[in-house]
Automatic annotation (TrEMBL):
Keywords: Acyltransferase, Transferase. Residues 1-149 form the N-acetyltransferase domain. It comes from Cytobacillus gottheilii. It holds the Pfam family Acetyltransf_1. This is GNAT family N-acetyltransferase. The keyword Acyltransferase applies. It comes from the Bacteria. InterPro entries: Acyl_CoA_acyltransferase, Bact_Acetyltransf, GNAT_dom. The keyword Chaperone does not apply.
């Protein structure tokens, strides 16, 4: 298996995984939209995507978005997406992606990596906790929906 930062050459493979990731979260399949979205992220360099390839092709990805902590006056990263193709699960790919994200965050001088997952996604919660992520019970997450939905 090979893990590396995705480039525009990985657009199609990452977009297929991204579409599957969105399907996992009960979104409508939209491969064309996924291609457009991932291309924009790569072209604008406003996210960092790491991808794992195995002998079958694209097996998993994670996408990080930059942010900053005003209190600590340091960079931080939001691990927004992590997905491993069903056929490639139980091979340590999720852990590889988390470690790559951690190494990258350290290299960029970040204070932290934050993420969120669905409350019923127990498998992901176990993976994150096994890799040192702590559930933040003292912080409330708020969101203002601007789509009107």
């Amino acid at each position: 298996m090979k893990i590396y930062q995705a480039t525009i050459e990985d657009l199609e493979g990452v977009s297929v995984l991204f579409n599957k990731y969105r399907l996992f979260y009960q979104q409508t399949s939209d491969l064309e939209g996924a291609l457009t979205y991932i291309k924009e992220r790569l072209d604008n360099m406003d996210s960092v995507i790491f991808v794992v390839k195995n002998d079958r092709g694209y097996a998993g990805f994670t996408q990080l978005y930059p942010t900053f902590s005003s209190v600590s006056m340091k960079r931080a990263w939001i691990l927004n997406d992590l997905y491993v193709d069903e056929a490639a699960r139980k091979q340590g790919i999720g852990e590889m992606l988390l470690q790559k994200a951690k190494d990258f965050a350290v290299e960029t001088g970040a204070k932290s990596i934050s993420l969120e997952t669905a409350s019923d996604n127990i498998t992901a919660q176990r993976l994150y906790e096994k890799n040192g992520y702590k559930k933040q019970s003292q912080i409330f997450h708020y969101e203002l929906d601007l789509t009107g939905k």
